[in-house]
Design brief:
By secondary structure, this protein is α/β, with parallel strands linked by helices. The protein has two domains: 97 residues, Beta-Lactamase; 202 residues, P-loop containing nucleotide triphosphate hydrolases (Rossmann fold, 3-Layer(aba) Sandwich), CATH 3.40.50. Helices cover 35% and strands 25% of the residues. Helix 7 links the parallel strand 10 and strand 11. The radius of gyration is 21 Å and the shape is globular. It starts with a helix and ends in a 15-residue tail after the last helix.
């Protein structure tokens, strides 16, 4: 049994979310957003090399030694799966391991906005789930994909690096491809998808111009495409996509996006007063007004806020409104509300309330 399995077991027993190993430091875990030491043993070069190399296949380990970066998934028997990221740093090497829940929870079980069920009912277009690292994007997307799988007969393709949640066929057919193993890149897999008779495509990470461009083209071609970005609001998501393209292409991209973007769900995880964390979601849905704003570009994206406020009856909501509701419902502290809010001035009066 690999030595690192004992640390994984500690993470599971402590109900933590992430294991952090870094050369020159003791092992640490994250629980409910806070990081603490597991023990006081400083990880030497010899010890951390053994811990990391034991669970990486030979070719993966050689790739890491050459590139200084590695992503893959590891299973602890039937008990748990982990998303593993290896990296170099100033004092040597390190790894971060995020536990992937064994069971795929439903949208209802995750207490996510019910409007997310409609995201899986679109016939075509693009849906984006956004948020910082560790905000639960993959968990939310897995719930949406599982909703499609449970309720409709479609051909679903997921392109991930690595594969996190493992789906089984229900009413739909699901094919999961892992970048670096089953395909060379997100772009390569998206090109292949054009010949695979797909109905739904999940792109694990839209990180570059090629991937974003191909994803938009796939949505335009009649696929329902889900993707992720590291943005924390609907407006910034739209800006990020458009800004990836050269200036001379941006008017065309605005037009394509105005037609294809069906919804955006931006997500943050907030610390509950009573322990644990709660998701806060900003929801943007396609309307004629939203499409016009995207197409016009320029400063008109600021108008999204007023459109979203007017769209509450159809399920739209603003992130700061959700955070303020959590505060008034006594679910989070004023300090947590201030720290996670987008408009800091709005929450300034709450910032010193830590209990």
């Amino acid at each position: 049994m690999p030595l690192i399995d004992a640390l994984f077991q500690t993470l599971i027993d402590e109900n933590g979310s992430d294991l952090h190993l870094a050369q020159g430091q003791p092992p640490k875990l994250r629980k409910h957003g806070n990081i603490r030491k597991i023990n006081n043993e400083v990880l030497t070069e010899e010890k951390i090399t053994l811990l990391l190399s034991e669970i990486a296949k030979t070719d993966r380990w050689e790739h890491f030694l050459e590139s200084g970066d590695l992503d893959f998934a590891y299973s602890l028997g039937e008990e748990a799966r982990f998303r593993c990221n290896y990296y170099r740093h100033s004092n040597g090497v390190g790894g971060i391991f995020r536990i992937i829940p064994r069971d795929i929870l439903s949208i209802e079980e995750l207490n996510l906005p019910q409007v997310l069920t409609t995201f899986g009912e679109f016939n075509k277009g693009m849906v984006l789930v956004t948020g910082p690292t560790g905000s639960g994007k993959s968990t939310t997307l897995a719930a949406i994909i599982d909703h499609i799988n449970s309720n409709t007969a479609r051909h679903i393709l997921t392109i991930e690096e690595p594969i996190e949640f493992v789906h089984t066929n229900k009413k739909s057919i699901i094919v999961q491809r892992e970048v670096g193993i089953d395909t060379g890149s997100f772009g390569e897999a998206l090109l292949d998808a054009g010949h695979a008779d797909c109905d739904v495509i999940l792109v694990g990470e839209m990180r570059d111009l090629e991937t974003i461009s191909l994803a938009i083209s796939a949505a335009e071609a009649g696929n329902l495409v889900f993707g992720t970005l590291h943005t924390n609001s609907a407006a910034k998501t739209i800006d990020r996509i458009i800004d990836v393209f050269p200036p001379d292409q941006q008017p065309q991209i605005r037009t394509m996006l105005s037609d294809s973007l069906k919804g955006v769900c931006s997500q943050l995880l907030l610390k509950r007063k009573t322990g644990g964390r709660i998701a806060a979601n900003e929801i943007l849905l396609q309307t004629m007004a939203v499409s016009n704003i995207i197409r016009d570009g320029g400063g008109s994206l600021n108008k999204l806020h007023s459109v979203m406020m007017g769209g509450r009856s159809v399920g739209m909501q603003m992130m700061d409104d959700v955070i303020e509701k959590y505060y008034h419902d006594d679910l989070i502290t004023g300090y947590e509300a201030y720290m996670k809010a987008l408009d800091k001035e709005r929450f300034e009066r709450y910032r010193d309330e830590t209990e």
